[in-house]
Design goal:
144 residues, Arc Repressor Mutant, subunit A, Dna Ligase, domain 1, three-stranded mixed β-sheet
Length: 144
Amino acid sequence: MTHHLLRWEATLWAAGHRVTRQRALILDAVCAGEGHTSLGEVFARVRRVDRTIDRSTVYRALRLFVELGLVLTADTGGGELRYEITKPHPHHHLVCRGCGREQEIGADALRAMTDHVSRQHGFRVATDHLVLFGLCAACSRQMP
């Protein structure tokens, strides 16, 4: 997914923030991860293009992008947040605890669960990016 489809410049302007070359480079670096990417990976990609951008600038920009809904965060089990460009439709991830493989699934895969939570508890689920942990089919077959 590319951030160019998000109208990110308009989103920044509307929220009273400047559009800068550094912010564009940071969004490019998130896109280059093609899915979940760590702060360190984003920082390394940015530094290959511009050595003057420091880690705190990358962190602050990512935090702003998350706040504005341009970037999503997830904890995929490695102990640090991973970043991903927001997609037009909600989605979720399956992460294998055996091999670490990640698989993206559509929101309808969890619709029955969210509908049940709504009926049983009167709670309207607003999560549009969930990470589920378990074992993929290959790792499950290897388990006794």
